[in-house]
């Protein structure tokens, strides 16, 4: 495989992998606006509705490390086409669901396919574009698309739900898959860095079980309380399998995760920030879309349209992030981006029954979206700095896994926070109690973003030479 063949159609390749990423992140947020319609049509209970989101993020986050390693060993082209085909088929099945169980199962299968596609989209960029200005530009475009995909998902979900049906929220993936296949077929090829090897099956199983049990424990805790037996049992399983995983990786000839990669400060800092970034984005979208409909009385399409400023702000933040990082460094851009996100979430936490779009929703939308867009690009650039080519899938998997697990854990925790705050509200007005729960969830989300800003300010390397030093 020659380098000329690998980079001949870089424009098509970049478009294909960006479509993969936008489809994967869109599928988290696109269902948010449709949740009330889904609950009514399929007769979901209030406690089980969050599983429409969690079933996807649970499998997605738990299998991302395995998905990234699978792409390295099986070949990027083969893994990409398998992931796309699987995603398209199960999306059609999700739209045909006739019961809560069928929809949740299909969403879990979407998460499985997404766990292959998400790390591949960044891996292919890392092994195709040489490190430096060309790769930074490609990563910036990828991160901008990923950051704006969530906001676009809310808008698209509202339009499809109100004008067609919530089922089209699932079926919309089919034409995206077909377009991505058409772009990827002539442009995506296995590179010289893809190498044959043996999949670390014990490590893969332990990592998957540990991540899945951790997220499941948080979900159970949100539904039944932190002292619930199922929650404590899941946390115990997560801790034990995590310890076994570390021991397994130290002895494995070809480990799923080379533990030495965490000696690289950019990798572990970016991973930690990704946890809080995922928590902020996923929880913010989830509760904002519910608050618009349940509190302000918006229709699905109105709620989706209300997120247009968020889409614009995310793109603007992503566009300026690269330039600002080149001039001032990644640390101030990343920390400032997360601080802006925190401010936006805290302002969201003041929503009330008398709130208006212009008075309450517009300003925090713009502030938070610019922050998310800037932080997403800066953090992705940080995490991929100095990564070895043969570990591109590993680093990509780690970046995606930490972000998605952060989102899943936060959503599970905050669903419990909102529910307990609503139930503990002393007033007789049920709407006021619901608003109190949403406000508390937004406030905690703001604390997550603030924690990420502090981590970035303290631990991100000061200069590019230190950041690029491989482990």
From TrEMBL:
It is a multi-pass membrane protein. It holds the Pfam family MFS_1. It is found in: Cell membrane. Residues 13-464 form the Major facilitator superfamily (MFS) profile domain. Keywords: Cell membrane, Membrane, Transmembrane, Transmembrane helix, Transport. InterPro entries: MFS, MFS_dom, MFS_trans_sf. The chain crosses the membrane at residues 12-35, 47-67, 79-97, 109-129, 141-160, 166-187, 199-219, 225-246, 267-291, 303-321, 333-351, 357-380, 401-421, 441-460. The keyword Calcium does not apply. It comes from the Bacteria. PROSITE patterns: MFS. This is MFS transporter. It comes from Kineosporia corallincola. The lineage of its organism: Bacteria, Bacillati, Actinomycetota, Actinomycetes, Kineosporiales.
